[in-house]
Amino acid sequence: MKKLYVAFVGLAALFLTAFTTTLQTQLASDAASWSPDTLAFITTTRLTEQRKNKPPETNVFVERYDPSAQPSWTLVSVDGAPPSKKDVKRAQKRHKDRKSVPGYHRNAKWLGQPATLSGDVLIYDGFEKKTFDMGPIEIAKKLKGIAHIDRSGPEPFIDHVTFTLTKPTRAALVAKIDAMSIDTTFRRLPSGRPVPDRVEFTTKGSIFGRSGTQTAFTRYSEFRELN
Questions:
Q1: Which of 31, 134, 170, 178 is deepest in the core (most CB within 10 A)?
Q2: Buried b / exposed e along 71-87 (16+ C-beta atoms within 10 A)
Q3: pLDDT averaged over the chain?
């Protein structure tokens, strides 16, 4: 019986590998087809920072992305008030350093990489270098990814993704990331286009000897599709 079970598991693994490859290719191709140049939206981010032995600090940032405008990113408000010149400069620098616009299309970079399919869930144990836009930090191989597939519509799409850092890593000589998680949900617009709904990004670590936790919770709204 044990030999039969082992043979069955081995055969099932071969089948899952072939099926996963086909499905991942379809999902990655679909993600790549949605250009960020054809979608405008609003982001509302609640950023909370908790440093050791200090009360938490929270700020709320509202930004507008419109690829048809110049500049494409606009800081609308900070804590419900018009942004200061300093806030605007920081936002402009952040978006200048960012290599890509957030959106469903970014899933195309990792969906086709080796994974295990379990039901409607893709499980990734590490990714190729340069997969994620994290600035000078390279942690792709230390990330575990879990992607949930929604098959309720005409075409499958990813509706929920989590990435978790599996081991602490140094971002620089003076910085260390002890823990990190990114939890993202996606939904479809009435037109059928998949878009981000919300993202929760949590990091725990230290820099220059100061330790703490930072959580950014972002909601996407007011989507407008452009011709």
A1: 31
A2: eebbbeebeeeebeeeb
A3: 87
Q: pLDDT (tens digit, 9 = 90+) per residue, 103-120?
A: 999 999 999 999 999 999
Beta-carbon neighbour count of residue 28 at 10 Å? 18
| Position 189, amino acid | L
d(CA 174, CA 209): 8
DSSP 69-133: SSSSEEEEEETTBPPPHHHHHHHHHHHHH--S--SGGGGHHHHTSS-EEETTEEEEE---TT-S-
For CA atoms 9, 14, 15, 21, the dihedral sign is positive
Instruction: List, for residues 157-200, the tens digit of each pLDDT value.
Output: 999 999 999 999 887 677 888 999 999 999 999 999 999 999 99
pTM, whole model, 2 decimals? Answer: 0.85
Which amino acid type is present at position 51? R
